[in-house]
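INTERNAL TRANSFER SHEET
From: sequence group
To: structure group
Subject: SHS2 domain-containing protein

Please process the attached sequence and return the structure record in the designated field. Keep the field labels unchanged so the import script can parse them.
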Amino acid sequence: MPNFKDVISGIFNKASGGQSVLGVDVSSSSIKVVQLRKKGGRAVLETYGELALGPYAKMEAGQATNLPPEIISEGLKDVLKEAKVTTVNCGVAIPLSASLITVMELPKMDEKQLASVVPLEARKYIPVAIQDVMLDWNVIPNVGPDGEDSKKLEVLIVAIHKDTIGKYQEIVRQAGLQASFFEIEIFSTIRSSLDRGITPILLIDFGVSTTKLYVVEAGVVKNSHSINKGSQDITLAISSSMGIGTKEAEQIKRDVGINVKLENGELSNASFAVLEYIISDSKRVMLAYERKHQRPITKIVFAGGGSLLKGLGDFASERFNVEVKIADPFKKVETPAFLEAVLSEAGPEFAVAIGTALRKLEELG
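Return from structure group:
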């Protein structure tokens, strides 16, 4: 059984109000849940919880795992109990790694033509049989740099393998939950981390094993890219450089961060190299988008657990030379004032779960 000091459990008294809903985020390293209700038109936080999956795989907390659905379901039941979750009504986020998002260009055509053309064209981007995936698409408003409508259509394609949907359905079913929707994590993150705006923003989801990049314009995903490095690589680099365990390295990463020094006073070159690699690849994606669309990206927002690396904001701002912010998803919900600092710090890790819960609240009207 896991050590529950790795669990952050809710400490809120359940107040009277509207129906409670739950957002569920299952990643390779942890399960996060956020329970909300609506009161006076506002989303109110009732409880939240996080459970490290490492101990379930006989690994340290914080490490990425590859567990079977039945074990993940056990972990989900455990965190629901520890966080004192009271509702079974939920929405579930699915990792980008288990899905596909791409934008394709098509000649202008009407909706009827699109309905027949999109599934055929999507085959070029989807590496499995089209009948084996759940396919959705949406036309992106596409205006050129001169303000004129583009002569081509940009279509956002979203595909999730039916086996993946089945896996997550089984996980929540075994945990006693009732999910009304499954959505790819990026849409949850956008909902909780970004304000409404029309200018392009680069959203960097700094995860444990991967870093996901999304260019978001007017609330729409215009580009996506994955980097096969994440916060775990920095933790392991600190662990190796300093000869300490990963748990201690994780704490040093959060407490000292960018300025971590070795005994000889030099910066840990291995961890620095990981971060520089991620920043460099992010700049490449950013510049490619700006060249293609002739519009500058003037803001970068970091979300995900890797965003808790101390000093990341200032470090990234110097490298990108644009405004850099760390997401604060709990600002989208009403929370106890005395927990504001704690929740602000934990917020980037809960971006997906909060965003999923917010969508579930929207279903209630």
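Handover comment: The CA atoms of residues 168 and 205 lie 21 Å apart. The chain has a mean pLDDT of 88.
Transfer complete.
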